[in-house]
Amino acid sequence: MFGDHYQVRQPTLSAWDFNYFWKMGEENWRDIAARGERQKREAQARIAARKAKLSAPKMAIVQEKGVPTSPVAPSAGFSKEVARLYQRPMSENARIVPALKAKLTELSPPYLFELSRRTFVTDKDEAVAIFWLAKLRAGYDTSRCTDTTVGGGVVMWNQTVADVIRYIQAHPSISKQGMKKALEREKAFPTDTSPAWICFHGIQAVSAAFAGKQLENWHKPRAQ
């Protein structure tokens, strides 16, 4: 149930990822446009070149119908399996929450964030502890990626637990207690889990996808 994001996948761009990084490109273009018409023309040429590359079949861009509605980019761990779980109604929490908690130390951060979101409905303080556990595990996994820009993908997950974060901001003492619980629970987690769910979100993966190349050396050896 919890394993699809452990699979090592080479970089592809979904419609969500395309729109996200394309927006970044447009913002960068606006920043440099003011530097002069010559640089503006150069920027336009680069954007045109990127559009041409993105239209090439070798990019293996995932095409989706309509406007992407995922709260998190697929490259940041929002896999199809996670998406299916996220879309299940809260009325199913009586089955979902115990099933997830039974395998707590096997869950990767995307599932921990989802568990926090669902737990908040019935146990807000416990949801806070699980939220900090998700943050701890996500921090551990991002530290094992060679690309230091992957952390932006972890921040995206805050959107899925907005209620939990608001509760944390309103109750700092409960947040502190939750952190302590998370630190204790994190000790039971294995150290050899795969960080693949987040390592393909950074700039290196996007650059490799633009170039139609395989991303190599995407994670640090476990000895480091």
Fold and architecture overview:
- This protein has 224 residues and is an all-alpha fold.
- It has one domain (4-211).
- The chain has helices spanning 15-33, 37-54, 80-87, 93-101, 109-119, 124-142, 151-156, 162-170, 172-186, 196-199, 203-211.
- The two termini are 30 Å apart.
Radius of gyration: 19 Å
Beta-strand share of residues: under 5%
> How many structurally independent domains?
1
Strand runs, count: 0
User: What's the N-to-C terminus distance?
Assistant: 30 Å
* Poorly predicted sequence stretches spanning 5 or more consecutive residues: 3-7, 51-68
Q: Per the principal axes of the C-alpha atoms, what is the gross shape? A: globular
The count of helical stretches stands at 11
> Biggest β-sheet, characterized?
none
Derived structural class: mainly alpha
Average of per-residue pLDDT values: 75
**From N to C, what is the helix and strand string?**
HHHHHHHHHHH
Binned, the helix content reads 55-70%
Mind sketching the topology for me?
Blueprint (H helix, E strand, L loop, with lengths): L14 H19 L3 H18 L25 H8 L5 H9 L7 H11 L4 H19 L8 H6 L5 H9 L1 H15 L9 H4 L3 H9 L13
